Input
Amino acid sequence: MVHFETKSSIFTENSGNMVHVLGKQNSVLNQYIYEMRDINIQQDSMRFRANMERAAMLFAFEISKKLKYKTIEVTTSLGTAEVPIIEDPIVIASILRAGLPMHNGMLQVFDHAENAFISAYRKYDRDGEFHIEMEYASVPDLDDKILILCDPMLATGASMVIGYQELLNHGRPNHTHIVTLISSIEGIDYIRKNIPREEFTLWTGAVDDELTAQAYIVPGLGDAGDLAFGKKVDSGH
Output
């Protein structure tokens, strides 16, 4: 059983290992999260991207412990040795543009993985409300593979669910690992309600308990895409 203690509530997940909050453990990941949250340090976009990549590498290492392995024999200059290697075929998927640094970090670890990319954005209506607009997806066959879906912020959860549903149009993975730096309780609840819990595992660095009226996580860290790549022109997206 996993408990997320927040300012106003306790989020309880009864399904055991479905949710992993790595920031609850003492590790160097918390140094990266601290620097990405810090309003002064995060102004260095190169360091922000590097911290996203390094955090993703740590998530990848933890995910690797959950995969299937096979033992192969390798020949060295002095003899042979048996080594367990990953057997599962892996596809890394990212939601553009903010997910790109995390994608690169995942590829540093799972360098044999295939790749998928999803273009989705918030489209604002005249009344100030928004919905998630899906524009494009580049996806290999996902049948019987392990899917790792990366997006730095899990706010409302809508873009994650829409992205996941789009990916399923290209095959059915054996299991999906959803990876985020910061999650909101609302976002976690939303994906639990809209993705069967046996289909996914969520990995996150921290869980925050508030969303602004514009659906940004508080305290969060801000707009991860802007911090990584610079502010974009507001064109109604």
Observations:
- The two ends are 39 Å apart (CA to CA).
- The first strand starts at residue 2 and ends at 5.
